[in-house]
Amino acid sequence: MTSREEEALKLLRSWEAGDRRALADLMPLVCGDLCRLAKSLLRREADGHALEPGALVNEVYLRLHGLRSAHWESRAHFYNAVVCLMRQILIDHARTSQRRKRGRGAQHLPLETAAGLAAASGDEQRALRDALLDLRRIDPGRFKILALRCFLGLTAEETAAACGVSVSTVKRDWREACVWMQRALFTSRS
């Protein structure tokens, strides 16, 4: 672990213990990583979205600052929580945009249903949703790797850091999750 990573972990522990300033001290250490995660997430968004990576990171900071308590098992746990928070911010932003654009009747879908399903037919959407939910239930670790790689566009290295595993483990689990999904989708068509 580098000295920067050790310092970040120390600040996470201080924040967890109730030191509210530790978050402010932590942000400059992790800001570059958070900006890379934000850019990766925003690449998946439709053209014309209003959020920039810096704005997304700022929103994450505000939401983290608003937490009454936090418990971090590791740096990877912190980054996973941040990715989930960024996803939720993007979902909230899209919902708000839809409300403004189309009025209050905007349809709300869970992430598992909405991700990547817009172009598929109804039967394909159901098959993909069911396969993803089955993978999440059967093998949460591989589901997480699949979600980080597919939905967030993270590299194998970024995924390994977020999950706290080696790059070779990510690559192996990624291949196996893809094969599992292909089999599940092929079986659903038969």
Kindly describe this structure.
This protein is mainly alpha-helical and 190 residues long. It folds into two domains: 3-102, Orthogonal Bundle (Rna Polymerase Sigma Factor, Chain: A); 111-189, Arc Repressor Mutant, subunit A. The protein has nine helices and no strands. Helix 2 (21-43) crosses helix 4 (75-102), helix 3 crosses helix 4 and helix 7 (140-150) packs across helix 9 (167-189). Residues 105-114 have low confidence and may be disordered.
Helix content: over 70%
Query: What is the CATH top level name of the largest domain?
Result: Mainly Alpha
Largest sheet: none
Number of strands: 0
Shape: globular
Topology as a string of helices (H) and strands (E): HHHHHHHHH
The total number of structural domains is 2
Rg measurement, Å: 18 Å
CATH topology descriptor of the largest domain: Rna Polymerase Sigma Factor, Chain: A
Quickly count the helices: 9
The CATH architecture term of the largest domain is Orthogonal Bundle
Strand content: under 5%
Give the N-terminus to C-terminus distance in angstroms. 49 Å
Mean pLDDT: 80
Structural class: mainly alpha
Low-confidence stretches: 105-114
